[in-house]
Amino acid sequence: SGRCWLFAGLNLLRVGAAQAMNLKEFEFSQNHLMFWDKLERANYFLEAMIETADRDLDDRTVAYLLSDVSNDGGQWNMFVALVAKHGVVPKAVMPETHSSSKSARMNEILQSVLRQGALEVRGCPTEERLERKQSIVAAVYRILCIHLGTPPERFLWQWSDKDRGFHRDGEMTPKEFAAKYVRLPLSDYVCLVDDPRPGSPKGRTFTVDYLGNVVGGAPVVYLNVDMAVMKKAAMEAIVGGSPVWFGCDVDKMRNNDRGIWDARLYDLESVYDLSFSLDKAERLALHDTQMTHAMLFTGVDVVDGSPRKWRVENSWGDEKADKGFWTMNDNWFDEHVFEIAAPRDQLPPELQVALEAEPIVLPAWDLMGSLAR
Predict the structure, then answer these.
(1) Which 3-state string (H, E, C) describes the chain?
(2) Judging by DSSP bridges, how do beta strands 360-362 and 155-160 pair with one another?
(3) The pLDDT value given to residue 318
(4) Angle between the 76-86 and 174-181 helix axes, to the nearest 10 degrees?
């Protein structure tokens, strides 16, 4: 499945939850948030189809929205929106299913249902669109319950901690569980990006048209900063004891067996007798790179105040790298990391002010709106 952004986000939260419950091991349900993301995104998509109903199907925005209706990917702000609206539950309360781990067939069905639904809401009288949309969303809910299970409204939570002490919270809703055990103030986190293209000024916020999952939720907003700012924020968070959610182009200069990313890992120039000279901005402009994967920074090697390499918790299983933990050399960070989530108060005052500016709106198909999956 393509839920790396949910795994990384929930792994960020589970540290505080495990400490609060005095547990050695704890895991939130990724399936729970996957269910609500699919349902919310179906509603978001149909709202977009209603909003653009006066445009032709081959309009570039409409065609782009129709091209990939129900993939598993996402962004940091989309994760925050789901936790805020639907809370979280322990994995034992809503465990994995076949379709949550292997989502392709379910996604094919959802795409067909939603594309058919798009035609219906675009073609029916204006006064009937809301009712028709709600009927389609109800059908999506049934499909998701069949594939992923029915999400709990309430659940009984009790556990034995690592010292064999027994605890019982009683019945809780997912939002009550989140209020008690999500210790990070997610609303205080902002998404910092490195977009070096000439048309993307540093120190400005921007968003991407029709990028999101929860209608009425906080929009996906990025703050474009210098790479030095991004690295400093990540380094300070890790040294302070908190992992860091980040997004990158994971396939570049990677060795799975050793679990290493390094910008100069392979000498391709010598192998092919060619020059690979595109910089990061040019690769973005030419569609040669984009964010493809989200993970967690869990450690940093600091030498003379500067990061030398980074420890990364991946979601690809513990049979790869060092039991699932990879090493990223700092030169790879420069070339292939695109964004991190960081507390607002870690930013310089001028950048905190910049967060309040009206964001520049990029078109729906811009590569900075790519989803980690």
Answers:
(1) CCCHHHHHHHHHHHHHHHHHCCCCCCCECHHHHHHHHHHHHHHHHHHHHHHCCCCCCCCHHHHHHHHCCCCCCECHHHHHHHHHHHCCCECCCCCCCHHHHCCHHHHHHHHHHHHHHHHHHHHCCHHHHHHHHHHHHHHHHHHHHHHHCCCCCCEEEEEECCCCCEEEEEEECHHHHHHHHCCCCHHHEEEEECCCCCCCCCCCEEEECCCCCCCCCCCCCEEECCHHHHHHHHHHHHHCCCCEEEEECCCCCEECCCCEECCCCCCHHHHHCCCCCCCHHHHHHCCCCCCCEEEEEEEEEEECCEEEEEEEECCCCCCCCECCEEEEEHHHHHHHEEEEEEEHHHCCHHHHHHCCCCCEEECCCCHHHCCEC
(2) unpaired
(3) 83
(4) 120
Token digits for 347?
A: 């930013």
Cα–Cα distance for residue pair 59/14, rounded to 1 Å: 43
Gap between the Cα atoms of 40 and 48, Å rounded: 12
Contact 344, 190 (CB under 8 A): yes
Tokens of 331: 């030169």
**Closest C-alpha among 306, 293, 307, 196 to residue 245:** 293
Q: Return the CA Rg of the chain.
A: 21
> How far apart are the C-alpha atoms of 261 and 253, rounded to whole Å?
6
Interstrand relation of 205-208 and 360-362 (parallel, antiparallel or unpaired): parallel
Distance of alpha carbon 97 from alpha carbon 86, whole angstroms: 20
10 Å CB burial of residue 349 (0-12, 13-18, 19+) is exposed
Residues contacting 308, CB < 8 A, separation 6+: 301, 302, 329, 330
Candidates 138, 123, 122; CA nearest to 43 is 138
Residues of the chain with pLDDT under 50: none
Amino acid at 290: Q
What is the amino acid identity at position 100? S
Q: Which residues are catalytic?
A: 4, 293, 314
Tell me the whole-structure pTM to 2 decimals: 0.95
Question: CA distances (Å), 153 to each of 89, 203, 245, in order?
Answer: 10, 42, 28
Nearest alpha carbon to residue 246 among 280, 209, 210, 291: 291
Block residue for tokens 């609500």? 36
